[in-house]
Amino acid sequence: MKGIYAAIVTPVDARGEIDTARLAAHARWLLAHGCHGIGLFGTTGEANSFTVAERRAALEALLAAGIPGERIILGVGCCALGDTLALARHGLAVGVRRQLALPPFFYKNVSEEGVFRAFAEFVERLADPSLELYLYHFPQMTAVPITARTIARLGERFPGILRGIKDSSADWPHTRGLIAEFEGLSIYSGADGHLLDNLRAGGAGTISAAANLACALSRRVFEAFCRGDQEVAEREMRQLAAVRAALARHPMIPAVKGVIADVLDDPAWARVRPPLIELEPAAARALRRELEGLGLELASLPQAVGA
Questions:
Q1: 219-274: per-residue pLDDT in tens?
Q2: What is the DSSP string of 83-139?
Q3: Helix/strand/coil for 3
Q4: Cβ contact 74:45 at 8 Å
Q5: Which residues, in sequence order, are CB contacts of 194 under 8 Å at separation 6+?
């Protein structure tokens, strides 16, 4: 499985609840403008700020709105195994087999063996061979790394279940090493700036926050690489790297939501759940202008996403 996946942001309403109408509209726009699929309830989606019940209801709303389950990678990793199992079982029951799991992340300085056992117990208790599991390595956020040895052991224990890894370490040598060592797995970069390097090394693409805005640009990099047009791929990649760098100068989730809110003239889109705070409207407007100055086209957003 290769491609461009947006780590979709999760809009919330005035009561702080998930705004499923805006979520579905944004998902449709992403799929129509370059994304092969969406990553639902990852870091960018504020997954761990929502309850299991909220996450299940939002998934059902997306499916009811016509978003195909096969184009969703569902985030399920929680601190409590029971919560992870509840999300995973529900996802499988409604036809979403591709699932992305963080390690349990509250306790720090845990052993490699402990991380292995956490994933192994999850798969064994789930007991469903239709699961397609993607491990989510994000040590800056979790402080619980998933080592190459753990990946190898899980692959040996659960062949056909373990399908890939999302590496959000932003450490290209680390990602390159995973691609080289695990040829049978789909290795995604969480860092947009590594997209072309990832593809050239034999990786699968990206699951990224910036794709919420730069999905078409990311897809152009992907398509140029696939057809062997390295000049175009490199030119588009330079633009994508600049877009990501501009976004990264702000807290990423409020930045993405703030730009959408500004483009749509819809302040509701700027909302985040605590402990995150919204980007100031003036900062969002300045960021939007900076992105458009880099050549990022945002004009299609209102027609497709506005609620």
A1: 999 999 999 999 999 999 999 999 999 999 999 999 999 999 999 999 999 999 99
A2: HHHHHHHHHHHTT--EEEEPPP-SS-S--HHHHHHHHHHHHHHH--TT-EEEEEE-H
A3: strand
A4: no
A5: 170, 172, 175, 206
Three-class DSSP category at 43:
coil
DSSP reduced 3-state for 79:
coil
Task: Give φ, ψ of 99 to 5 degrees.
Answer: -135, 140
Tens digit of pLDDT for each residue in 280-304?
999 999 999 999 999 999 977 865 5
Domains, in order of start, for the chain: 3-228 (3.20.20.70)
The length of the chain, given as a count of residues: 307
pLDDT digits over 93-151, tens only? 999 999 999 999 999 999 999 999 999 999 999 999 999 999 999 999 999 999 999 99
CA distances from 21 to 59, 94, 230, 235 (A): 12, 19, 39, 36
Residue 172 to residue 192: CA distance in whole angstroms = 11
What's the pLDDT score for residue 306?
53
Instruction: State the burial class of residue 57 (Cβ atoms within 10 Å of its Cβ: 0-12, 13-18, 19+).
Output: middle
| pTM exceeding 0.90 | yes
